[in-house]
Amino acid sequence: MTQHVSPPRDGTRRTAAPAGRPARRSLPVRADVRTLTLLGVLAVLVLIGGLTRPHEFLDTRNLQLVLTQASVIGVVTVGMTFVITSGGIDLSVGAIVALSSVWATTVATQSHGLAGILLAATLVGLGCGLVNGVLIAYGGVVPFIATLAMLASARGLALQITDGRTQVVTVRGVLDLGERETYVLGVPPLVLVFAAVAVAGWLLFHRTTFGRRTIAVGGNPEAARLAGIDVRRQRLYLYLLSGLCCGIAAFLLIVLAGSGQNTNGNLYELDAIAAVIIGGTLLSGGRGTVTGSVLGVLIFTTITNLFALNNLQTDVQQIAKGAIIVAAVLVQRRTASTA
Amino acid sequence: MHQLTASRRRLLLGAAAASAGALLTGCTSNDTGEGDGDRTAANDRPAADDKPGKRITIGYAGPQADHGWLNAVNDNARQRAEKYPDVTLEVTEGSNDTAQQIGQIETLINRQVDVLVVLPADGKALTRVGLKAMRAGIPVVNLDRVFNTPQAYRCWVGGDNYGMGLNAGHYIGERLKDKPNAKVVELAGLDNLELTKQRTQGFDDALKNYPNIKKVARQAAEFTVESGQAKMAQLLQAQQDFDALWNHDDDQGVGALRAVDQAGREDFLMVGGAGALSAFQAIKAGRGVLKATVLYPPTMAASAIDLARALGQGKGVSGLAEFEIPSSLTCYSAVVDKENVDQYMSTGFK
């Protein structure tokens, strides 16, 4: 990402595009190439799957499986896209998912049924996001440190609540959402939620002032402030949004795994950041794409699926995953620069 | 020391607690109201030697109990010690941090406890402090995760990972031996750990005795419910038809069983590992695919206390001919199925 992409604090781009409407004319071409590259990668993966395990891979149930497994981390990734676009980072997403999932599955919460579990999961997510946001926006703590602290504390609290025990969900209505009987025209409810969050995220990002402010804050906070944006409030909202996404993801995970555990959401922060970066969002902020992030998540989930179907072991999986991240980013850079 | 570390942890948790605490107070209660659910099997077993001897203090240092099995281990040790009027147990706050655990054990050495029982967070890394205790004249009972050298402990008590695989393999083998071209699938635990390799090795070795059985797939989960569900869902998609599954760990088995439910599959036999209460209950109910589980008994911690007491009082193990306790003791990985599950129910951990 050298001279072709305006670096975040590049004054020339800012003068060409005021903070309110940042450089929208120059971006679509490159963004489309990026999306096409990601779709190409996905197509190659599907081809490999179709060739190696045609019967198991090209199967409705497998499609349902891949999308379901993608939905939990997918929702987290949508929130992460906003945070990274704004020039921040949220290292606490996995821990927030863990805390929300255990808080929402205690015996006391479960006694309030589906509504209680859903409410607890989202409120705990929002609460953690609020703490992150206040610390970063008004406390002046850098995002890396603030969310790292939240990672440690939220994991600790999750452990304290569970005492390391697995909290099995007994609320029938919640469990049913993860089973075939509730599929809507063959689409699992979890996938519907993921799709809804992705679409809402896309609209928020590309069609509202909130989205434009996010890009502006990430591109050049000083210019954004001079343009009349309340940068601090915007940052607070962004971490709240990420926390909310974690809360929703925690609910999905509760449905999927039928339980809450303090080990939930292990290394989600890395998976989400990897998907966001592969998708084409700049780690330094100022440019982002929700579509790219969603495709990034789908690529990773498809890879995991391919490995499992071909019975490859963990060591091979990890090596290949690293190689694929590098390859995808390199290919993207080439295609982006030749466009 | 106990109080000091506890208060420090509370301080650390302050930020997170403040965020969520106000919103949903009361919702974190896990009290089922069923009263005394924490009792383990340690209480109803005959002790090594019930005759009271000289008063001794046993220092116990374990890792942070961040999952069910370790919780059960700590509970077993504590309750076993309570059973003996002549034993005082000094328990450290559990820690997964090597440096912190070394510090805690050094404190116990300085306090000159009579015997140490140590379940290290990392056996290799804590060898040094085991040696230090032994040199200071405090005998060490090394629990489960073994130190680098036998010089660092007087007695090792632990589970048998290879034996778990072996017994799971034999159990499955006996049930499928008359079935031509039988297919078996393995859901392993965390692949980074040596114990996972040992379990798989034992399983493979047992299956070699049954030429009609072939292991067609193996995937590794991470001992968590979430990873168990994810990996099992993939395995079920990859293998549309198989006869038996061995899952290394009952905790991840909760997730694996969820995936089996979600896929609507019931055409195979599943054997678990470790011995969780939920697994015992499912085996007893007998409705699902889970038919048996191989133990990695948390009662080994109670036995470690027995051995430490015998060591401190200069006794052997009653029922054995020697005047001293053995230098190593490997617990048997029994297979628990519907036939004998009632006997083991009280050892099941949550």
TrEMBL record, chain B:
Span list, region Disordered: 26-55
Signal sequence region: 1-22
Ranges annotated as biased composition (Basic and acidic residues): 36-53
One Pfam family cited in the UniProt record for this chain: Peripla_BP_4
Record keywords, A-Z: Signal
Domain Periplasmic binding protein: 58-315
Keyword presence, GTP-binding: no
InterPro entries hit by this protein: Peripla_BP_I, SBP_2_dom, TAT_signal
Subcellular location: Cell envelope
Similarity comment text for this entry: Belongs to the bacterial solute-binding protein 2 family.
Name of the featured protein: Substrate-binding domain-containing protein
Organism: Streptomyces griseoaurantiacus
Lineage, uppermost ranks: Bacteria, Bacillati, Actinomycetota, Actinomycetes, Kitasatosporales
